[in-house]
Structure formats: C-alpha cells, structure tokens
Amino acid sequence: MKPALLLNASYEPLSIVDWRKAVTLLWLGKAEVLVAQEREVHATHQSITLPSVLRLLRRVRIPRRRVHFSRNNIYRRDGYCCQYCGDRFNGADLTFDHVLPKSRGGDTSWTNIVTSCQPCNRRKNSRTPTEARMPLLTQPYEPRWWPFSAGAGNLEEHPEDWKPYLWT
Ligand SMILES: [Zn+2]
User: Fold this and answer.
1) 17-53, pLDDT tens digit by residue?
2) CA of 133 to the centre of ligand 1 (A)
3) CB under 8 Å to 106, separation ≥6 — which residues?
C-alpha cells in the first residue's frame, strides 16, 4: 500500500505517513482526504478509500525545521545550475562558491554560498561578484523545510498526485 502525504491545515507538507496512520487520522475525524488512491481497504462493514494526500483539520504548530546545510542541498536549492553562467551541470562538475570570499571574511552559510561551475569559480577567484563583474542570477537564501529536503529523495520519485502540494 502506498504511503500518503500529510498536510497541515494550512496546506504545508508535514510528513509522509503509512496507510494505517492515514486511516486512523480519518477515523478520528482529524483529517480530510484531498486526493484518494485508487484502491480501497475493506473493514468489517465498510470500505475505506485510502488517501494519497490528506490534510489535518486543525493546524498543528510545529517547531521550525531547518534544511540540513550540505553541498547537495545547495545544489538542489540552485537547481544544479551555476549561479554565474546559468548552465546546468551534474553534481560532480559543480562546486560551491563563497559570494563574499572566505579570505575577506565571508562565512560558509546558506546566504553566502552558491552553486558554481568550476570555470566560473576559477574566474571569479577571490573577488566579489561586483569586482569580478559576475552578477549572481539569484540571491542565495535558506530554503524552506519540506518533507523530502531531509533525505536524498528526488521529487520525480514521488506520486504524481502529490506534486501540486509540494511546491506551495
Ligand atoms: Zn558557470
């Protein structure tokens, strides 16, 4: 049985739950089905449609979760595109660049690190984007947490009917 995507009452993705947990939430009247799966589960006198996406009826407050700061998550944030020339690369051909160079006091953080291809990284060297005349395509930022940012999961591997809810 396929797991379900659980959304908060505010529609933000909370977690992925197995079908038993999903059905329990529905039975308890704590959630509603937004998208149903094709298959049904037969209980004693009734059949239950399994949800593929369900939403809590009351918003739960969750502590702010942060995306793990890592090389791969930086590449993912930037869509595997060099933030100087805009070309797309494989992870192996990418590196990360300190926008304000480390030698000038730049820190290693979400807001000072961008994805860069190796030629752009060499060309920029220890200059700022302004000095190097290499404007950034997007300003670096800390990405918002969502259920798959924690793992290596690729969005393409998740059910088609989850997708509209993952980008909101
Ligand atoms: Zn480049």
Assistant:
1) 998 999 999 999 999 999 998 777 676 777 777 899 9
2) 13
3) 98, 99, 100, 112
Average confidence (pLDDT) over 143-150:
63
Q: How many whole angstroms from 116 Cα to the centroid of ligand 1?
A: 5
pLDDT at 93 exceeding the cut of 80: yes
Q: Find the 163 Cα to ligand 1 centroid distance in Å.
A: 30
Show the 3-state SS of 51-75: EEEEEECCCCCCCCCECCCCHHHHH
Contact 145, 139 (CB under 8 A): no
Bridge partners, residue 144, by sequence: 66
- Give the integer Cα–Cα distance in Å for 2 and 109: 37
Domain map (residue ranges) of the chain: 1-58, 71-132
Tell me the residues surrounding ligand 1 (ion) with CB < 5 Å: 82, 84-85, 117, 120
* Length of the chain (residues): 168
The third-level CATH classification (topology) of the domain covering 71-132 is DNA Binding (I), subunit A (1.10.30)
Order of strands across the sheet that contains 47-56: 13-17, 4-7, 47-56, 31-42
